[in-house]
Amino acid sequence: MPGTKDPNRAGSRGRRRLAAAARRPPRRRGLRNSAKSGDSECVQKHRQWLWPLVVTVLVTVLVALLTWNLATKSVARYVDVAYPPAGEAIAGSLRPQVVQLRRFSEARISLRMLDGTIVREAGDLSVEWSTESIPDGDYRLVVTVRERWFFGLPVMLLEPQVISIPVLVNNTPPILSVSGIRRGEAVSGSREVAISVEGGIIDSFVVSGMPRQVAAGVPTALVSLDTVALPDGEHELLISARSPSGLLVQERLPFQVDNTPVTITSLGVGDKPICGIVELRPDVNKRDLVAVSWMLDGVVIGTELLLDWDSTTVSDGAYRLELEVTDAAGNRPEEPEHTLIVVDNTPPTMKVALPDTIRGTFFRYSIVAVDVAADEDVTVRLLVNGDPIGAVGSVGRHLLHLSQYEPGTQLVLGVLAVDRAGNETLVKKEIMVEYCVLSLIDSLLSYDRWKLHSLLIWLCWMGLPILVGSL
Questions:
Q1: Residue 451's Cα: distance from chain center in Å?
Q2: Which residues contact 385 (CB under 8 A, 6 or more apart)?
Q3: Tens digit of each residue's pLDDT (9 = 90 or more) over 395-447
Q4: Torsion over CA of 85, 86, 87 and 88, rounded to 10 degrees?
Q5: pTM of the predicted model as reported, rounded to 2 decimal places
Q6: In the chain, what are the domain boundaries?
Q7: What is the CATH number of domain 175-257?
Q8: Is the CATH number 3.30.70.790 carried by domain 350-463?
C-alpha cells in the first residue's frame, strides 16, 4: 500500500548500521557509551557507584577533620617563643624572640595587663618595645597566630595558636646599703662590711680591682675586709647589686689603709714635781687621733691630746699618769703609756730679813744684805719694785746694790722663793733710801770685800782739806 513502510527494507538498514558499528573500536564515553559498546553488566554496575563513593569518602574525611579540630580545640603549633621565658623580669626594652615552626597567614603580638588591658600591640612579631613608661607590675605577653587557609580553601573555623607568657616589668633599680665602712675612712686590720640590697641581689665585691669571694645571689651578706695584705695608702671598694630585671647599681667607697701602729715616746712631763696648771704635751707619731684618754690612777682627767690640766683638783702626792690613744684607722699601742708624777701645790715656807732703811754714802754706793732661810730646796730671786735684780740664788745671804736710787726714794724690796714643783712664796717690804756718814762704817762692816776699798775712799776724803791748807 502506498505510504506503508517495508519492514524488510527497514530491517536491512538497521542490520547494516549494527554491522558497521561492530567493525569500529568501542569508545569510552561514560556508562551510556559503555552500555552501547556492549560492556558487561557487572562493570556497568561498578562504574555507576564508584564516583559517588569517592566523593563521599573525601567529604567525610574533611568533615571529620574539622569536627575533631573543633571538638578537641586542637591548636596547630605555628610559632614558639624563645624569649622571654615565663616569669622573666624585664627592664628598659622588651624584644621578644619568636621562632616560626610552620607557615601562617596572620599573627599579632601584644603586652597586656592581667585584666586584659592591652598596653602594647603590633602585627609584626619582630618588635621591640620600651617599658620605661609602663608602670612596674605583672603583665602577660600574648602571641596569636592563625592560618586562614586549609588545603588551598579558606577555613575560618580553625583555632588560632595563642601563646601567653607571664612577665614582670621592673624598672626600679635596687637599693644598695653598705655599713661597717664609710667613704674616705681610714681602716686597719680586718673590718666587717655589711651589705644589704633591697629589690635585688649582691653581684660583686671588688677591692682595688681584686674581686673578693661573696655569697652570690643573696640580698644580704657580711664580708670580711682584710687590709693586712694591702699597702698603706688610698684604696677603693666597689660593690655591685643587680635587680631581677638586670638593672645594675654600683657603690664606690674610697678608703685609706693605715696599718702603722701608734707609738708614744714621751708624755711631756718631767721628773720634777708638778703644781698648778700643767701643760701635758705628749710626743706621738700620729696626729689623726680619734680617741684620747688621759687618766690619773685610772680616772679620766681629759680627752684632748694637748691638755692643760689643773693639778689643784687633786691632793698632793704621787700618782700614775696614763695616756691611751687610738688613730682613725683603729691602731692603738698595746699598752697605755704611763709615768709616775708627784703633785705638790704647797708653797715653800721661808724666813727673810730685810732692812727698814737704806743708808747710802756720799758717793751713793749702797749695799744691802738680805738673809733668806727656807725649810726646803728653793731658788731665790730678789726684786726691787717688782723687777728682778741680781742673779738667781739659793737660801743664805744676798746683797743688793742700790746706789742708783736718789735719797728719799721709796722702794719695795721683795724676795721670791720657788720650789722644785714651781710653787712660789713672795715676801715684800717698803723701805726708804737715806744718806748718812755713819752708813760708810756700816758699809765697811757689811761685807769684807769692801772694807779696804771703803777705808781708802774715806781717808782721801778726810785728808784732802788738810793737804790743801798746808799748801
A1: 87
A2: 411, 412
A3: 777 777 776 777 677 888 888 888 888 888 888 888 877 654 444 445 545 54
A4: 10
A5: 0.54
A6: 39-69, 79-169, 175-257, 264-343, 350-463
A7: 2.60.40.2550
A8: no
Q: pLDDT tens digits for 97-113? A: 988 877 777 888 999 99
CA atoms within 13 A on the CB side of 140: 14
CATH of domain 264-343: 2.60.40.10
CATH 2.60.40 fits 79-169, yes or no: yes
User: Using CA of residue 459, residue 465, residue 470, residue 471, what is the dihedral sign?
Assistant: positive
CA atoms of 343 and 310, how far apart (whole Å): 11
Q: Tell me the three cell numbers of residue 174.
A: 635596687
Measuring CA to CA, which residue among 214, 216, 221 is closest to residue 179?
221
* Alpha-carbon span 168 to 330, nearest angstrom: 47
Sheet holding 118-122, edge to edge: 88-90, 161-169, 137-146, 106-113, 118-122
Calculate ∠ Cα 343-349-353, nearest 5°.
155
Average pLDDT over residues 384-393: 78
